[in-house]
Write a structure and sequence with these properties.
The protein is of the alpha+beta class. The protein has 3 domains: about 110 residues, no CATH class; about 200 residues, 2-Layer Sandwich (Nucleotidyltransferase, domain 5), CATH 3.30.420; about 110 residues. The chain is built from 18 helices and 9 strands. Strands 1, 2, 5, 6, 7, 8 and 9 form a 7-stranded mixed β-sheet that branches. It has a two-stranded antiparallel ribbon with strand order 3-4. Helix 13 links the parallel strand 8 and strand 9. The longest helix has about 50 residues. It is flat and about 85 Å long.
Protein backbone atom coordinates (compact mmCIF):
# COMPACT_ATOMS: atom_id res chain seq x y z
CA UNK A 1 0.00 0.00 0.00
CA UNK A 2 1.44 3.37 -1.00
CA UNK A 3 1.77 6.03 1.70
CA UNK A 4 0.15 9.46 1.28
CA UNK A 5 2.28 12.55 1.92
CA UNK A 6 1.40 16.17 2.48
CA UNK A 7 3.04 17.89 -0.44
CA UNK A 8 4.08 21.52 -0.80
CA UNK A 9 2.85 23.82 -3.56
CA UNK A 10 5.57 26.46 -3.43
CA UNK A 11 4.18 28.49 -6.33
CA UNK A 12 0.89 28.92 -4.47
CA UNK A 13 2.72 29.56 -1.22
CA UNK A 14 4.58 32.50 -2.76
CA UNK A 15 1.21 34.09 -3.55
CA UNK A 16 -0.05 33.68 0.01
CA UNK A 17 -0.86 36.89 1.86
CA UNK A 18 0.44 36.94 5.43
CA UNK A 19 -0.67 39.39 8.12
CA UNK A 20 2.17 40.55 10.34
CA UNK A 21 -0.34 40.57 13.17
CA UNK A 22 -0.67 36.80 12.78
CA UNK A 23 3.14 36.42 12.99
CA UNK A 24 3.57 38.54 16.12
CA UNK A 25 1.57 37.51 19.20
CA UNK A 26 0.23 40.34 21.40
CA UNK A 27 3.09 40.02 23.90
CA UNK A 28 5.89 39.86 21.30
CA UNK A 29 9.01 41.87 22.09
CA UNK A 30 8.71 43.86 18.84
CA UNK A 31 5.25 45.09 19.83
CA UNK A 32 6.48 45.88 23.33
CA UNK A 33 9.40 47.93 21.94
CA UNK A 34 7.09 49.95 19.68
CA UNK A 35 4.60 50.56 22.53
CA UNK A 36 7.37 51.61 24.93
CA UNK A 37 8.96 54.04 22.46
CA UNK A 38 5.52 55.58 22.03
CA UNK A 39 5.61 56.54 25.73
CA UNK A 40 9.07 58.17 25.62
CA UNK A 41 9.73 61.89 25.29
CA UNK A 42 11.77 62.24 22.08
CA UNK A 43 11.75 66.05 21.93
CA UNK A 44 15.56 66.26 22.25
CA UNK A 45 15.99 63.93 19.26
CA UNK A 46 13.45 65.77 17.13
CA UNK A 47 15.27 69.03 17.93
CA UNK A 48 18.30 67.73 16.05
CA UNK A 49 16.46 67.80 12.73
CA UNK A 50 16.53 70.91 10.54
CA UNK A 51 13.78 72.33 8.41
CA UNK A 52 15.48 71.72 5.07
CA UNK A 53 16.05 68.56 3.08
CA UNK A 54 13.97 65.52 2.23
CA UNK A 55 11.57 63.80 4.59
CA UNK A 56 13.65 61.73 7.06
CA UNK A 57 12.56 58.53 8.75
CA UNK A 58 10.75 59.19 12.02
CA UNK A 59 13.04 58.74 15.05
CA UNK A 60 10.56 56.24 16.52
CA UNK A 61 11.17 53.90 13.59
CA UNK A 62 14.96 54.07 13.75
CA UNK A 63 15.00 53.82 17.54
CA UNK A 64 12.78 50.77 17.33
CA UNK A 65 15.16 49.08 14.90
CA UNK A 66 18.14 49.90 17.14
CA UNK A 67 16.47 48.78 20.37
CA UNK A 68 15.05 45.57 18.94
CA UNK A 69 18.26 44.85 17.04
CA UNK A 70 20.45 45.15 20.13
CA UNK A 71 17.93 43.17 22.19
CA UNK A 72 18.11 40.28 19.72
CA UNK A 73 21.81 40.32 18.86
CA UNK A 74 21.67 42.32 15.60
CA UNK A 75 24.11 45.19 16.22
CA UNK A 76 24.76 46.38 12.68
CA UNK A 77 22.88 47.07 9.48
CA UNK A 78 25.41 44.85 7.68
CA UNK A 79 26.89 42.36 10.13
CA UNK A 80 25.74 39.68 12.58
CA UNK A 81 24.16 37.00 10.97
CA UNK A 82 21.32 39.02 9.41
CA UNK A 83 21.89 42.76 9.17
CA UNK A 84 19.18 45.20 10.20
CA UNK A 85 18.39 46.32 6.64
CA UNK A 86 18.12 42.75 5.38
CA UNK A 87 15.99 41.88 8.41
CA UNK A 88 13.45 44.55 7.44
CA UNK A 89 12.81 42.42 4.33
CA UNK A 90 13.07 38.91 5.79
CA UNK A 91 12.10 39.15 9.48
CA UNK A 92 8.50 39.81 10.53
CA UNK A 93 9.44 41.67 13.78
CA UNK A 94 11.89 43.99 11.99
CA UNK A 95 9.43 44.51 9.13
CA UNK A 96 6.73 45.45 11.65
CA UNK A 97 8.98 47.92 13.49
CA UNK A 98 10.14 49.47 10.21
CA UNK A 99 6.50 49.71 9.05
CA UNK A 100 7.39 48.11 5.70
CA UNK A 101 10.17 50.67 5.13
CA UNK A 102 13.80 49.71 4.61
CA UNK A 103 16.32 52.25 5.97
CA UNK A 104 19.77 51.69 4.50
CA UNK A 105 23.00 51.12 6.39
CA UNK A 106 24.21 54.72 6.22
CA UNK A 107 20.91 56.02 7.59
CA UNK A 108 20.94 53.62 10.55
CA UNK A 109 24.65 54.14 11.29
CA UNK A 110 24.37 57.94 11.13
CA UNK A 111 21.27 57.92 13.35
CA UNK A 112 23.03 55.75 15.91
CA UNK A 113 25.95 58.17 16.09
CA UNK A 114 23.65 61.18 16.38
CA UNK A 115 21.40 59.68 19.05
CA UNK A 116 24.19 58.49 21.38
CA UNK A 117 24.11 61.64 23.57
CA UNK A 118 20.35 61.21 24.12
CA UNK A 119 20.50 57.55 25.14
CA UNK A 120 21.23 58.13 28.88
CA UNK A 121 18.04 60.19 29.13
CA UNK A 122 16.03 57.51 27.31
CA UNK A 123 17.62 54.93 29.64
CA UNK A 124 16.26 56.84 32.64
CA UNK A 125 12.82 57.22 31.03
CA UNK A 126 12.53 53.45 30.61
CA UNK A 127 13.41 52.98 34.29
CA UNK A 128 10.74 55.53 35.25
CA UNK A 129 8.21 53.51 33.25
CA UNK A 130 9.29 50.48 35.28
CA UNK A 131 8.66 52.44 38.50
CA UNK A 132 5.24 53.52 37.30
CA UNK A 133 4.44 49.90 36.50
CA UNK A 134 5.40 48.96 40.06
CA UNK A 135 8.15 46.53 39.05
CA UNK A 136 11.12 48.64 40.19
CA UNK A 137 11.49 49.51 43.86
CA UNK A 138 15.17 50.32 44.15
CA UNK A 139 16.68 48.61 47.19
CA UNK A 140 19.93 46.66 47.17
CA UNK A 141 22.05 46.71 44.02
CA UNK A 142 24.94 44.61 42.73
CA UNK A 143 27.89 45.97 40.74
CA UNK A 144 30.13 44.19 38.29
CA UNK A 145 31.54 44.75 34.85
CA UNK A 146 32.77 42.84 31.79
CA UNK A 147 35.78 43.68 29.68
CA UNK A 148 34.66 44.00 26.08
CA UNK A 149 36.72 44.15 22.90
CA UNK A 150 37.36 47.68 21.71
CA UNK A 151 37.08 48.49 18.01
CA UNK A 152 40.84 48.14 17.69
CA UNK A 153 43.34 45.33 17.35
CA UNK A 154 45.99 44.71 19.98
CA UNK A 155 48.44 44.26 17.06
CA UNK A 156 48.17 48.03 16.58
CA UNK A 157 49.41 48.66 20.12
CA UNK A 158 52.98 49.92 20.66
CA UNK A 159 54.92 49.58 23.90
CA UNK A 160 56.53 52.48 25.77
CA UNK A 161 59.96 51.01 25.01
CA UNK A 162 59.19 50.83 21.29
CA UNK A 163 57.84 54.40 21.32
CA UNK A 164 61.20 55.57 22.63
CA UNK A 165 62.96 53.70 19.84
CA UNK A 166 60.63 55.19 17.21
CA UNK A 167 61.15 58.67 18.62
CA UNK A 168 64.93 58.29 18.41
CA UNK A 169 64.66 56.94 14.86
CA UNK A 170 62.47 59.83 13.70
CA UNK A 171 64.81 62.37 15.32
CA UNK A 172 67.69 60.90 13.34
CA UNK A 173 65.65 61.07 10.14
CA UNK A 174 64.77 64.74 10.80
CA UNK A 175 68.44 65.52 11.41
CA UNK A 176 69.43 63.71 8.19
CA UNK A 177 66.81 65.65 6.20
CA UNK A 178 68.05 68.96 7.61
CA UNK A 179 71.65 68.04 6.81
CA UNK A 180 70.57 67.13 3.29
CA UNK A 181 69.05 70.59 2.92
CA UNK A 182 72.30 72.24 4.03
CA UNK A 183 74.22 70.30 1.33
CA UNK A 184 71.66 71.13 -1.36
CA UNK A 185 73.70 74.16 -2.51
CA UNK A 186 76.85 72.08 -2.96
CA UNK A 187 75.50 68.74 -4.15
CA UNK A 188 72.71 67.89 -6.61
CA UNK A 189 69.62 66.30 -5.03
CA UNK A 190 67.73 63.32 -6.48
CA UNK A 191 65.10 64.39 -8.98
CA UNK A 192 61.74 65.14 -7.34
CA UNK A 193 63.15 65.36 -3.80
CA UNK A 194 61.86 68.40 -1.88
CA UNK A 195 63.79 68.80 1.36
CA UNK A 196 61.12 70.92 3.05
CA UNK A 197 58.49 68.24 2.41
CA UNK A 198 60.76 65.51 3.75
CA UNK A 199 61.47 67.49 6.92
CA UNK A 200 57.76 68.23 7.48
CA UNK A 201 56.82 64.57 6.98
CA UNK A 202 59.35 63.32 9.51
CA UNK A 203 58.49 66.02 12.03
CA UNK A 204 54.87 64.94 11.72
CA UNK A 205 55.89 61.33 12.37
CA UNK A 206 58.00 62.46 15.33
CA UNK A 207 54.99 64.10 17.00
CA UNK A 208 53.00 60.87 17.23
CA UNK A 209 55.37 58.90 19.52
CA UNK A 210 55.80 61.99 21.70
CA UNK A 211 52.04 62.34 22.13
CA UNK A 212 51.68 58.60 22.85
CA UNK A 213 54.46 58.72 25.46
CA UNK A 214 52.77 61.67 27.18
CA UNK A 215 49.54 59.66 27.43
CA UNK A 216 51.36 56.63 28.90
CA UNK A 217 53.20 58.84 31.38
CA UNK A 218 49.90 60.35 32.55
CA UNK A 219 48.45 56.85 32.94
CA UNK A 220 51.53 55.82 34.91
CA UNK A 221 51.01 58.69 37.37
CA UNK A 222 47.37 57.67 37.80
CA UNK A 223 48.39 54.04 38.36
CA UNK A 224 51.07 55.03 40.85
CA UNK A 225 48.54 56.98 42.93
CA UNK A 226 46.20 53.97 43.07
CA UNK A 227 49.04 51.56 43.86
CA UNK A 228 50.35 53.88 46.56
CA UNK A 229 46.95 53.89 48.26
CA UNK A 230 46.77 50.08 48.06
CA UNK A 231 50.33 49.81 49.43
CA UNK A 232 49.50 52.05 52.39
CA UNK A 233 46.37 49.98 53.12
CA UNK A 234 48.38 46.74 53.13
CA UNK A 235 50.97 48.24 55.45
CA UNK A 236 48.23 49.33 57.90
CA UNK A 237 46.59 45.93 57.71
CA UNK A 238 49.84 44.11 58.52
CA UNK A 239 50.50 46.46 61.41
CA UNK A 240 47.02 45.88 62.80
CA UNK A 241 47.37 42.11 62.46
CA UNK A 242 50.64 42.26 64.38
CA UNK A 243 49.06 44.40 67.08
CA UNK A 244 46.09 42.05 67.37
CA UNK A 245 48.03 38.77 67.41
CA UNK A 246 51.29 39.91 68.95
CA UNK A 247 53.16 38.06 66.21
CA UNK A 248 54.94 39.38 63.13
CA UNK A 249 52.83 38.95 59.97
CA UNK A 250 53.64 36.02 57.72
CA UNK A 251 54.72 36.48 54.13
CA UNK A 252 56.76 39.11 52.41
CA UNK A 253 56.06 42.72 53.29
CA UNK A 254 54.36 44.74 50.54
CA UNK A 255 56.63 46.62 48.19
CA UNK A 256 56.07 50.31 47.37
CA UNK A 257 55.05 51.01 43.76
CA UNK A 258 57.66 51.91 41.19
CA UNK A 259 57.01 55.35 39.67
CA UNK A 260 56.96 56.07 35.96
CA UNK A 261 55.82 54.16 32.87
CA UNK A 262 56.78 50.53 32.46
CA UNK A 263 58.57 49.41 29.30
CA UNK A 264 55.68 47.11 28.37
CA UNK A 265 52.92 49.74 28.79
CA UNK A 266 50.90 49.85 25.57
CA UNK A 267 49.41 52.62 23.43
CA UNK A 268 47.02 51.83 20.57
CA UNK A 269 47.05 54.19 17.61
CA UNK A 270 43.70 52.93 16.27
CA UNK A 271 41.75 53.63 19.47
CA UNK A 272 44.08 55.45 21.87
CA UNK A 273 41.50 55.49 24.68
CA UNK A 274 41.21 51.70 24.86
CA UNK A 275 43.82 49.65 26.70
CA UNK A 276 45.46 46.27 26.78
CA UNK A 277 43.72 44.38 29.61
CA UNK A 278 43.86 40.91 31.07
CA UNK A 279 40.67 38.96 30.48
CA UNK A 280 39.06 35.84 31.82
CA UNK A 281 37.91 34.62 28.39
CA UNK A 282 41.16 32.88 27.51
CA UNK A 283 43.38 34.14 30.35
CA UNK A 284 45.18 36.32 27.84
CA UNK A 285 45.20 40.01 27.00
CA UNK A 286 43.11 42.01 24.55
CA UNK A 287 42.50 45.58 23.46
CA UNK A 288 39.45 46.29 25.63
CA UNK A 289 37.17 48.81 27.24
CA UNK A 290 35.84 48.11 30.73
CA UNK A 291 32.05 48.30 31.01
CA UNK A 292 30.13 48.42 34.30
CA UNK A 293 26.54 47.84 35.42
CA UNK A 294 24.61 48.38 38.64
CA UNK A 295 21.73 45.88 38.79
CA UNK A 296 18.73 46.11 41.09
CA UNK A 297 18.68 42.82 42.99
CA UNK A 298 14.89 42.50 43.08
CA UNK A 299 14.00 43.26 39.45
CA UNK A 300 17.33 42.54 37.67
CA UNK A 301 16.96 45.86 35.85
CA UNK A 302 20.16 47.79 35.15
CA UNK A 303 19.87 51.09 37.00
CA UNK A 304 23.35 52.49 36.36
CA UNK A 305 26.10 51.91 33.81
CA UNK A 306 29.45 53.31 32.76
CA UNK A 307 32.49 52.59 30.58
CA UNK A 308 36.12 53.29 31.45
CA UNK A 309 39.59 52.25 30.36
CA UNK A 310 40.72 51.25 33.85
CA UNK A 311 41.95 47.64 33.84
CA UNK A 312 40.58 46.97 37.35
CA UNK A 313 37.24 47.65 39.00
CA UNK A 314 38.30 49.94 41.84
CA UNK A 315 38.09 53.20 39.92
CA UNK A 316 34.80 52.26 38.22
CA UNK A 317 32.50 52.07 41.25
CA UNK A 318 32.06 55.84 41.68
CA UNK A 319 31.12 56.67 38.06
CA UNK A 320 28.69 53.74 37.94
CA UNK A 321 26.94 54.88 41.12
CA UNK A 322 26.87 58.47 39.85
CA UNK A 323 25.05 57.21 36.74
CA UNK A 324 22.03 56.19 38.85
CA UNK A 325 19.59 59.02 38.25
CA UNK A 326 18.04 60.56 41.40
CA UNK A 327 14.60 60.23 39.79
CA UNK A 328 15.03 56.44 39.76
CA UNK A 329 15.69 56.34 43.50
CA UNK A 330 18.56 55.82 45.88
CA UNK A 331 19.79 52.29 46.62
CA UNK A 332 20.01 51.32 50.27
CA UNK A 333 22.89 48.85 49.90
CA UNK A 334 25.39 47.66 47.31
CA UNK A 335 27.14 44.32 46.89
CA UNK A 336 30.53 44.33 45.15
CA UNK A 337 33.18 41.67 44.70
CA UNK A 338 36.76 41.85 45.94
CA UNK A 339 37.97 43.68 42.85
CA UNK A 340 36.25 46.85 44.11
CA UNK A 341 37.57 46.70 47.67
CA UNK A 342 39.32 49.82 48.89
CA UNK A 343 38.88 52.20 51.78
CA UNK A 344 38.10 54.93 49.25
CA UNK A 345 35.22 52.97 47.72
CA UNK A 346 33.79 52.18 51.14
CA UNK A 347 33.87 55.87 52.05
CA UNK A 348 32.39 56.84 48.66
CA UNK A 349 29.44 54.50 49.13
CA UNK A 350 28.81 55.70 52.67
CA UNK A 351 28.88 59.35 51.53
CA UNK A 352 26.09 58.49 49.10
CA UNK A 353 24.04 56.92 51.89
CA UNK A 354 24.59 53.41 50.50
CA UNK A 355 25.58 50.59 52.86
CA UNK A 356 28.62 48.88 51.28
CA UNK A 357 29.04 45.10 51.25
CA UNK A 358 32.36 44.51 49.47
CA UNK A 359 34.28 41.25 49.58
CA UNK A 360 37.71 41.61 51.16
CA UNK A 361 39.17 38.60 49.38
CA UNK A 362 38.32 35.43 47.53
CA UNK A 363 35.92 33.19 49.46
CA UNK A 364 37.06 29.58 49.97
CA UNK A 365 35.18 26.90 48.08
CA UNK A 366 33.04 24.34 49.94
CA UNK A 367 33.10 25.80 53.46
CA UNK A 368 32.30 23.38 56.27
CA UNK A 369 28.84 23.27 57.83
CA UNK A 370 30.29 24.88 60.97
CA UNK A 371 31.41 27.90 58.94
CA UNK A 372 28.13 28.13 57.04
CA UNK A 373 25.92 27.95 60.15
CA UNK A 374 28.19 29.71 62.62
CA UNK A 375 26.67 32.41 64.80
CA UNK A 376 27.43 36.02 64.01
CA UNK A 377 30.90 36.99 65.25
CA UNK A 378 31.52 39.66 67.84
CA UNK A 379 31.83 43.18 66.43
CA UNK A 380 35.41 44.34 65.79
CA UNK A 381 36.97 47.11 67.88
CA UNK A 382 36.26 50.71 66.91
CA UNK A 383 39.80 51.24 65.64
CA UNK A 384 39.78 48.16 63.38
CA UNK A 385 40.86 48.58 59.77
CA UNK A 386 38.27 48.93 56.96
CA UNK A 387 39.05 45.37 55.84
CA UNK A 388 38.36 43.92 59.29
CA UNK A 389 35.13 45.90 59.70
CA UNK A 390 33.94 44.89 56.24
CA UNK A 391 34.76 41.22 56.85
CA UNK A 392 32.58 41.38 59.97
CA UNK A 393 29.68 42.97 58.04
CA UNK A 394 29.81 40.20 55.45
CA UNK A 395 29.54 37.53 58.17
CA UNK A 396 26.35 39.01 59.62
CA UNK A 397 22.98 37.63 58.53
CA UNK A 398 22.17 40.83 56.61
CA UNK A 399 25.58 40.86 54.98
CA UNK A 400 25.26 37.24 53.87
CA UNK A 401 21.84 37.93 52.37
CA UNK A 402 22.85 41.05 50.44
CA UNK A 403 26.24 39.85 49.25
CA UNK A 404 24.96 36.35 48.59
CA UNK A 405 22.46 37.77 46.08
CA UNK A 406 25.25 39.25 43.96
CA UNK A 407 26.05 36.06 42.06
CA UNK A 408 22.39 35.50 41.17
CA UNK A 409 21.75 39.09 40.04
CA UNK A 410 24.51 40.98 38.27
CA UNK A 411 26.46 37.97 36.98
CA UNK A 412 23.50 36.42 35.11
CA UNK A 413 22.69 39.82 33.58
CA UNK A 414 26.24 40.15 32.24
CA UNK A 415 26.15 36.54 31.06
CA UNK A 416 22.95 37.10 29.06
CA UNK A 417 24.37 40.28 27.53
CA UNK A 418 27.63 38.63 26.44
CA UNK A 419 26.58 35.07 25.57
CA UNK A 420 25.71 34.69 21.88
CA UNK A 421 23.38 31.68 21.96
CA UNK A 422 19.61 31.38 22.31
CA UNK A 423 17.68 34.51 23.27
CA UNK A 424 20.77 36.22 24.66
CA UNK A 425 22.17 39.47 23.27
CA UNK A 426 25.66 38.22 22.42
CA UNK A 427 27.30 41.65 22.72
CA UNK A 428 31.06 41.08 22.96
CA UNK A 429 32.68 43.98 21.10
CA UNK A 430 32.14 47.70 20.68
CA UNK A 431 31.69 48.89 17.11
CA UNK A 432 32.50 52.54 17.90
CA UNK A 433 35.86 54.02 18.85
CA UNK A 434 36.68 56.29 21.76
CA UNK A 435 35.39 56.15 25.32
CA UNK A 436 32.53 58.57 24.74
CA UNK A 437 31.17 56.62 21.76
CA UNK A 438 31.69 53.28 23.53
CA UNK A 439 29.83 54.61 26.58
CA UNK A 440 26.93 55.60 24.32
CA UNK A 441 26.82 52.16 22.74
CA UNK A 442 26.93 50.51 26.17
CA UNK A 443 23.93 52.65 27.18
CA UNK A 444 22.16 51.23 24.13
CA UNK A 445 23.03 47.67 25.17
CA UNK A 446 21.83 48.24 28.74
CA UNK A 447 18.66 49.90 27.49
CA UNK A 448 17.98 46.90 25.24
CA UNK A 449 18.42 44.55 28.21
CA UNK A 450 16.04 46.64 30.31
CA UNK A 451 13.38 46.52 27.58
CA UNK A 452 13.60 42.73 27.45
CA UNK A 453 13.51 42.48 31.24
CA UNK A 454 10.70 45.02 31.64
CA UNK A 455 8.57 43.06 29.21
CA UNK A 456 9.01 39.94 31.34
CA UNK A 457 8.30 41.86 34.56
CA UNK A 458 5.20 43.53 33.13
CA UNK A 459 3.90 40.22 31.87
CA UNK A 460 4.42 38.69 35.30
CA UNK A 461 2.73 41.64 37.01
CA UNK A 462 -0.33 41.35 34.76
CA UNK A 463 -0.47 37.55 34.72
CA UNK A 464 0.88 36.28 38.04
Amino acid sequence: MSRTFRTADYAATLDTSVRLGDCLPPDHLARFVVDTIGQLDLAAIYARYGERGGAPYAPEVLLGLLFYGYATGVFSARKHPVGTRRATHESAPFRFIAANMHPDHDTLAAFRRQVLPELPELFVQVLLLARLAGVLQLGAISLDGPKLHADASKSKAVSYRRLGELEAQYRREVAESLALGERADREPLPEGLVVADEVALRQQRLAKPAEAKAVLEARAREREAAEQAAYAAKVRERAERQRRTGKPPRGRPPQPPTPGPRPADQFNFTDPESRIMKNSRDRGVDQDDHAQVAVDQASLLIVGESVSNHPNDQAAAGPTLDAIAPAVGAPAAAALDAGYFSAGNIAALERRGIAPYIATGRDPHHPSWRERFAEEPAPPPADASPAVRMAYKLRTALGKAIYGARKSTVEPVIGVIKHPKGTRLGFRQFSLRGLQAAAGEWSLVCLAWNLKRLRVLRRGAVCP
